[in-house]
Amino acid sequence: MVSAALHSLEPGRGGVILVGGAGVGKSTIASAMLSRTGSNFHVEHIRCSPVASRTPYGALSLLLSALDARSLGHPALLLEGLASVLIEHAKGKPLLIFLENAESLDPLTATVITQLASSGSVTLLITSQDIAAGSGEFLKLWTTGHLRRIDVEPLSLVEAGDLLQQTLEKRLSAIAIRTLWSVTGGNPLFLQVLAQKQISSGRLFELDGVWVLAGDVLFSEDIAEIVRLGLDALTPAQCRVLEVLALAGALPVKVLNQIVDPEDTDYLQEQEMVEVSPGPELTARISDRLTAEALRFGMPSGRSRELWERLNAVLDPSTLPPASLPHFACWGRDCGVDLDPSLLLRAAKAANEQCDPRSALALLPDIDTATREPAALLETVRALVALGELATASQVLGTISSVEGVPDPELRASLAIEHHKLARALPDETGQPTGVLSVTECVHEGMARAIHRVDPQTTMMVDRLILAKAEQAMFDGRHAQLPDELPDLYFDRDRLPDLRMYAGSLLCEAWSVTGRQQEAVTLVRDLLREIGTSNVSEAARDAVYLRAFNALLFAGEYAECLELLDGEEALGMNRVRWASRSELFRGLLYAYAGCSDLALESLVPALSQLSLRDPEGMAPYARAATAYAYSLQDETERAKHHLGLVRVHGYPSSWSIQRGTTYFTLLASSGSGLTEDVADELTSFASEDLANGNVSHALVFLSAATRLEGTVSGDMLASAARRNDGAYATLCRDFGAGLVLDDAPVLIRAAELAQEIGNPLFSYDAARASRAAAHRAGNRAGVRAARLVENTSYRLLRRSHGIEDRLALLTEFELALATAAAAGESSAALGRSLNLSARTIDWHLGKIFERLHISGRAQLREILC
């Protein structure tokens, strides 16, 4: 940006205006520009401020002090005198006025400076938050082409991560980066200030060489003050709109307009400070989270109470959308208002549905201690489970003397489900779940009720119990034993959207595991299309995203998994909340694909963040995958270290997580030279999975065993693959059959398919096997084709395998030879110029091709020319 702007900052040109919000780096860029070209000018630095703007020519007071009173009273004389003073200061050099914070400039000063610029007397370098602020003089200079405008944008997520890593000198977890970036809007100044605030408060701390974030972000008074100063240009009525929305979170426009002037809301929307979301009912919220945080942070309690009473006088809380209810209730609680317990309960339930368990807990304590209502206890338990505080959740649930004694059937079923989940996660001393009413019993009891009483409440209760039974079966690894009613629940569009979506997510994962992978992938695509536009809760959206990823992963669709991770926003996902999980999923995905560098980039920070909260027991899975990634890089000691920690974790995890942990543990162990033993164990687990109908896991284990052991497991792999459908099954079938038949074309077909679905390690192994088979058959064309795929896959496995890194390994002679060959020089011509035979040149080129992992001159030309 600096380089691009410098040509406009030359003597004789009008100059540059840098436009952007407070703290985005305008002054830093301007200083860099001055350091590059400032010696060509005499620079007059003028800092504008709200205080100086109240006085005519306030920003020029030092320069004008040399003029007599008669000149100050006459604009023409003042302009002439100011020009003389500047010329005298310049001592023959061209003049440059560096004007900071031009939005705070008084109109008379703006007029004088623009006249100097228009006459060609000075070049301008201006920073401003708003080019149209004040008298609009600089806007005129821009529209006439006299000034070049450069918009300084906030940092992207990647740029923010780079800045934080550079500032804090260590890697940060994804959730730490995304949270800080989200709160600050990518403002580099605020980003660094807020990070330091979290460090000083202990919220951001170093763990195993990674900065991790614990809890909510604490706001900074420094940032709040800067943001509030930026609102000085607004009227009190306009500020009131922002204050109400900051405290309420979001409000229906028709409600907001009962306590503020609609024209003020419209003005703020035009200024992009307020956004109005479309839908059945228009809802307004502050566009910039930083502004909302700053207004809440600095709000005096009396002002907050005044605004609450003004809103409460016209608002019926029952009409608030679920997204607004928790904010409204928390606001009232903070004002010391005695809120109706039913309102608090509804707000807590809405907060849980929006995956905001901390707000839910903040709203519930008074209800729990005063009434011990089971409905309130249920929401408390759900919030504690979401936060990973399983033992506390179990204690809270234990305060209900008997789940069976709760009169409301839906509430009774919900409590039984939560009780069962906690019993599953917190086994007794014998390792067995504690004795509670089983989900299966609840399903039978609920269905018996439904026979005698069919109404929406009973139907919903039975649906929840069916989903809980299906979830338990999948937790146990019984994916082929889902309730018969589950498909009907998903395909019936009259069912509650949250329950439908969750039923669909369970189906797609189970189908993927049990061999119906084509149907599973089609269902995933349908779910993702629908959930991107459906009005479902955040909790349901999370469940669909999680199980859709698992379904694609188990189906071996790695490239589509990556598209899903990169497309969360399009699905309406809360990217801050999902940052940590996405980071973990990305690391696991790359580990399955054999891309060790990329896997470790995500797994190492994900592991550190998991150590703070891991209610699903994912840490062993991540730890084993990390060990495997290190073993791929031949870092044996690090691999052993992580393998030693695999079993150190808190809560029991699902069958799929345990299977993934076992898979990576075995592969990481294979680096110790026990390849045959490892292959036998992999085959044994695969046999067990095939017997239980969990075909996809069997294929993953068998394909690894086959790549370790060769043709021994190839027949079993091909046979198992025929029990499955989809691309990964086709890949496994071709790979196994190709090894058994020693068929190079079949193996190269497998290698190309592996490359297509995003698994470079499988592609590399299959291509190597194809090349060996082609070589044994004397098939030179087959050898060349296999080598091309092999080299392409090899370069994808690690950064050090990339062309740039490989080129660095060449000697000067080899690099010169490669460059000449890529330019089209024949071996004979090169031999003559180097006094070598053409055969010797070909020998050297062969070594170069081997070192670069390319297949010949055509690829050499492609990468160098």
Structure commentary:
This protein has 865 residues and is mainly α. It is 64% helix and 5% strand. The chain is built from 48 helices and 11 strands. The strands form 3 sheets. A 5-stranded parallel sheet has the order 2-3-4-1-5. A 3-stranded mixed sheet has the order 6-8-7, sandwiched between helices. Helix 20 (357-363) packs antiparallel against helix 22 (374-386), helix 23 packs across helix 24 and helix 33 packs antiparallel against helix 34 (619-632). It is flat. Mean pLDDT is 84; it is low at 429-437.
Tell me the radius of gyration: 33 Å
Mean pLDDT: 84
Low-pLDDT segments? 429-437
Please, what is the oligomeric state? Answer: single chain
Task: Sum up the structure in keywords.
865 residues, mainly alpha, 5-stranded parallel β-sheet, 3-stranded mixed β-sheet, 48 helices
